[in-house]
Design a protein that fits this description.
- Helix content is about 50%, strand content about 5%.
- It is mainly alpha-helical and about 170 residues long.
- The protein has a two-stranded parallel ribbon.
């Protein structure tokens, strides 16, 4: 907290990297992380959804404990870690949705009561689009991009997000 206070005092840009969807985490745990980020006031508070790729220990643990969604196979991983979770955990939908609104809520804390309600909805394409839009907006702001660079980033992001396919080539041994 002291270091972040100094960074903010002297106008240094900061990015805090957070993760939600961790086994054992509750929605309130994730909201506590959000509140801590609000208190720290980073330039950009990013939030990812935990993705236990093979051969990580968390992947092995998820396999052993049956945390993956029914019918999950290694080729079912989404190629972009900000979309969803392959884990079937309590309150996972709320945590996926919270991730979509995380950066925006840190920047505009008055939205927290509304976000608490919005995360109760089933994850959907609108939330995914908003989450990607907020991600791009905060990335551009953090990196100090000009309008031409923002257009280039938007085009590259659209191309990436609309490509088809899943991750392939993962070792079948996992």
């Amino acid at each position: 907290r002291k270091a972040m206070g100094l960074f903010n005092k002297y106008g240094l840009r900061t990015k805090l990297l957070n993760m939600t969807g961790i086994p054992g985490e509750t929605v309130e745990d994730a909201i506590d992380t959000l509140k801590m980020n609000i208190e720290l006031k980073p330039t950009w508070a990013r939030c990812s959804i935990v993705t236990p790729y093979p051969p990580m220990d968390l992947y092995k643990m998820a396999m052993e404990k049956g945390w993956f969604k029914e019918g999950f196979g290694v080729d079912d991983f989404d190629y972009f870690y900000l979309r969803t979770s392959q884990l079937d955990l309590p309150q996972i939908d709320e945590r996926i949705n919270l991730q979509k609104f995380f950066s925006l809520t840190v920047k505009f804390p008055f939205l927290l009561p509304l976000v608490r309600q919005l995360i109760k909805v089933k994850p959907n394409k609108l939330y995914e689009a908003l989450g990607m839009g907020f991600f791009g907006l905060f990335a551009a702001h953090y990196d100090g991009l000009n309008s031409e660079e923002v257009r280039e980033l938007a085009g590259a992001t659209k191309q990436f997000l609309t490509r088809k396919g899943r991750m392939t080539g993962m070792p079948k041994a996992y």
